[in-house]
Amino acid sequence: MQDLFEIIIEGFQTLTLNKMRTGLAILGIVIGIGSVITLISLGQGSQKSIENQIQSLGSNLLTISPSRQNSGGVMGQSGGVTSLVLADAKAIEEKF
């Protein structure tokens, strides 16, 4: 037990002898911890914001986009990208 007490006393004496080094080490630790806390907070805030945006869309949202038709697993030239027209929207509305 005496050895532990002597080690602690010697450690504090070393810290007081090298004040500049001790101060810079403490400053580095404080800046590092602050940076980690800031990055974690930004990440959690961004995640919460994105989750709120997705939840605001609702559960009754259906996204439809035009696509190419595949011919035998290979993109065929005849099935190019087509645009959706109003008749397509009406047909989808009637179906759902």
UniProtKB/TrEMBL annotation:
Task: Look up keyword Transmembrane helix and say if it applies.
Answer: yes
Molecular function terms, GO-annotated: transmembrane transporter activity
Q: Which residues form the MacB-like periplasmic core domain?
A: 22-93
Signal peptide span per the entry? none
GO CC, alphabetical: plasma membrane
According to the record, the segments passing through the membrane are 24-43
Short name of one Pfam family for this protein?
Answer: MacB_PCD
Keywords on record:
Membrane, Transmembrane, Transmembrane helix
Organism's domain of life? Bacteria
Q: Does the keyword Transmembrane apply?
A: yes
Looking up InterPro entries in the UniProt record yields:
MacB_PCD, Macrolide_Exporter_MacB
Q: What is this protein called?
A: MacB-like periplasmic core domain-containing protein
